[in-house]
Design brief:
The protein is α/β, with parallel strands linked by helices. The protein has 10 helices and 10 strands.
């Protein structure tokens, strides 16, 4: 258990004991948002600057009142942006609203139907943001070449999709995720596609540093209970990865109990 006590997620030089990052959208209200995040144990919460009030709409309820920045690390994101310029402007606004906050999640979408990332615009935005001093966690495709390019640009974490945003289809291509994990040196976190606890466990067993999810929890029939399940799944998957699974052996059965010392049959 000592290994687990010292096993922390490190992003942009900061340490977090939780490897589960939670989105703050799609809940029925901010009270449910807070309850789900408490159940998840998450320390990093994402907020869509274009959709959630964090002070830019005076007189309206603010997420800051329910999730104080003194208790959580905010990860402003560019959900809804389709160009590099829009994404950069959005995150500049976030930095102003959050008093110089530099940790951000970049996503530049390709179309409104699949919400698949536009990797060309994503790379362009990442270059600008890194030059301006942002710590960029970046949503991208599961292409290992693009992932390496984003690391080379200076992104502090690579966040490939497991399947389409909001689809709940789970880990559709574990092989590409494995290549990315083996290729880049910064943390790799699955972002998008997780539908239930087993999906989260599989991602962590592959060696992902963490998982970001929103719809899987907010869209569940009981979001609070699902948040608790996801917390346990991420922890179990991480422990399994650290433990090292037994090798797979096709057609090579091995009894669980020792065969030596067995009582022999006497006719």
């Amino acid at each position: 258990m000592e290994m687990m006590m010292n096993d922390e997620l490190i992003v942009a030089g900061k340490h977090y004991h939780s490897r589960l990052l939670i989105g703050t959208g799609k809940y029925k209200d901010f009270t449910e948002t807070r309850a789900a995040i408490d159940a998840s144990g998450a320390q990093i919460v994402t907020v869509a600057i274009r959709r959630t009030n964090i002070g830019q709409k005076a007189g309206e309820p603010s997420l800051l009142d329910y999730l104080p920045p003194s208790e959580f690390t905010y990860l402003p994101n560019t959900a809804g942006c389709y160009t590099a310029d829009d994404a950069v402007r959005t995150l500049r606004l976030a930095r102003e609203l959050l008093d110089g906050h530099s940790l951000v999640k970049l996503e530049v979408l390709g179309d409104p139907h699949t919400l698949y990332p536009n990797v060309i615009e994503t790379i362009a935005a990442a270059k600008t943001l890194v030059k301006e001093g942002f710590d960029v966690m970046v949503y991208t495709s599961d292409d290992p070449i693009i992932a390496k390019q984003l690391e080379d640009v200076g992104c502090c974490a690579i966040m490939p999709l497991a399947s389409l945003i909001g689809s709940g289809m789970g880990i559709l291509n574990p092989w590409n995720l494995q290549i990315i994990i083996d290729t880049v040196k910064v943390p790799v976190l699955v972002d998008a596609g997780v539908g239930t606890a087993s999906d989260a466990a599989i991602a962590m067993e592959l060696g992902c540093a963490g998982i970001l999810m929103n719809t899987a929890i907010a869209g569940a029939q009981n979001p609070i209970l699902m948040a608790s399940a996801m917390k346990k799944a991420v922890e179990a998957g991480r422990e399994a990865f650290l433990a090292g699974r037994m090798p797979k052996k096709l057609y090579s059965a091995s009894p669980s109990s020792p065969t030596s010392g067995m009582i022999e049959r006497i006719d």
